[in-house]
Amino acid sequence: MSQAVQLKTLQQADFDRLLAWLDPNPERAGELYESIRWRLIAVLASRGCRLPEELADETIDRVARRVKDIRDSYVGNPAIYFLGVMNNVHHEYLKRPPLPQLVLANEDTEVKEQTFLCLDNCLAKLSPHAREIIEQYYADEKRAKINLRKRIAARFGMKQSNLRLRALRIRAKLQTCIQQCMEMSEARL
Which has more pLDDT, 185 or 96? Predict the structure, then answer.
């Protein structure tokens, strides 16, 4: 059974409101945003989360949508509010069924080969635009990955947060396709 992924698109107005809530100075607001995001990722990774960036982004999106309701009444460091929301997001993540693994290290060569055939098949079903995004999105590691994602977002004329959401949706679609392909392969055996 495939896992349904529900994503709500973050509106630009919500994101702008979030930055203004963090600091009236846009430069400092951007720095605080990045600092909070990296802190969320670090906390989630330290908890053994396999998707720390995606959960950090989900946390930020939820806070951004709530800012209009809390900005006048919330007192204190906004980073603390993010951590509270992150705890809720993390608890929800722990309750989700696990995502299918594409290839496990201890699987035999036939299973690995079938998985890669399914991946190629599923990639071919994507639109050229979606395929280009997903292939490039996961291409590099660490700082190079961050710089690459900035360039991808700029090339496609979108914000990095929108790029992350789009990549997450494409990845979920691919995982479902691969899982279905693998199940069909097993049924034929």
Answer: 185
